[in-house]
Every structure is written in structure tokens, then in C-alpha cells.
Amino acid sequence: MRSIIFTLLVLIAIVNCDLVKTTSCFENPTLTVDAVDVNPVIAKPGDNVTSIIKGTANKEVTGGKLTVEVFLRTIRLFAFTYDLCKIGTCPVTGPYTATVVQNVPKIALSGVYSTKNTAVDAAGNILSCVQFDFQVKK
Ligand SMILES: *[C@@H]1O[C@H](CO)[C@@H](O)[C@H](O)[C@H]1NC(C)=O
């Protein structure tokens, strides 16, 4: 019985998640990123896209910021900055979850966009860097 319930929970979790494939752009990060769930994974211009980032802090982080750079092919179109303590809970210790909600500009063109997400501490030291793609479709 217990294993049936567990299987159901796993299935529900899989159906509800749009886990995106991430690649790391910084070695030995203080904040590891284990999973990024993007909803909706195919956005329309004007949509609010919610990204839930789950990972682990290898050292206590008391504050800092996350910069999200958005590229279409090689052109940097947008950059958004978030306070780490507003998208997550400070101090960040052990397993953490951060939630970023970003509006897709109404003028956005259809296409596959890539993002570079860099977290730095208050002194500007890089804590983490991951890249992932998302799609905009009118
Ligand atoms: C996106 O979020 C903003 C601010 O919370 C809200 O005013 C707006 O209606 C939302 N747009 C959509 C398409 O959900």
C-alpha cells in the first residue's frame, strides 16, 4: 500500500513539473542548483513565467543577488536582477528553494531563448551560475 501511494505521488510530481535541463557555468558553486521547474515552459508574450529553483547551499549565504540575462541566439536582450533574500529565505543554509516570477514582454518574438543565471554574494563573489533555455510561442 505504501509503495502504491509513493508511486502515485511520484507520478503526480512528474506530471506537475516542467523540469528544464540546466548546464552549470561556474565550478564548485556555493549554491548548487539541483532542479529548475519552469511554468509555463512554453510561454506566450505577456505571460508571467514562474521558475522554482531547488538546490543546496554548501556554505551559509546571508545575502546577495541573482542576475538573469536573456539571450536570443547570441544577442543579450534583457537582464533582470533579484534580491536573493526576496526570492528565497535568508540566511540560505542547506537545501533551499527560490522562486522567480518574471513577465515576458509583450513585444517578445517567438523562439528559443537562453538564460544565464548568476548569483553573487553581497561582496560580488559568484555563488552559482547555471544556463537553461525556455521557449516563447505566440
Ligand atoms: C502577471 O503578474 C502581474 C503582477 O503580479 C499581474 O498584474 C498580471 O496580471 C499578471 N499577468 C498574467 C498574464 O497573469
Automatic annotation (TrEMBL):
Chain ranges passing through the membrane: none
Alphabetical GO biological process terms: sterol transport
Record Pfam families: E1_DerP2_DerF2 (PF02221)
InterPro entries xref list: Ig_E-set, ML_dom, NPC2-like
Protein name, UniProt field: Phosphatidylinositol/phosphatidylglycerol transfer protein
Subunit structure: Monomer.
Annotated function: Catalyzes the intermembrane transfer of phosphatidylglycerol and phosphatidylinositol.
PANTHER family per record: NIEMANN PICK TYPE C2 PROTEIN NPC2-RELATED, PHOSPHATIDYLGLYCEROL_PHOSPHATIDYLINOSITOL TRANSFER PROTEIN
Region forming the signal peptide: 1-17
Gene3D superfamilies noted in UniProt: 2.60.40.770
MD-2-related lipid-recognition domain ranges (all copies): 14-134
Keywords associated with the record: Lipid transport, Signal, Transport
Gene Ontology molecular function: any one: sterol binding
SMART domains the record matches: ML
SUPFAM superfamilies: E set domains
Family per record: Belongs to the NPC2 family.
KW Nuclease (keyword) present: no
Entry keyword Transport: yes
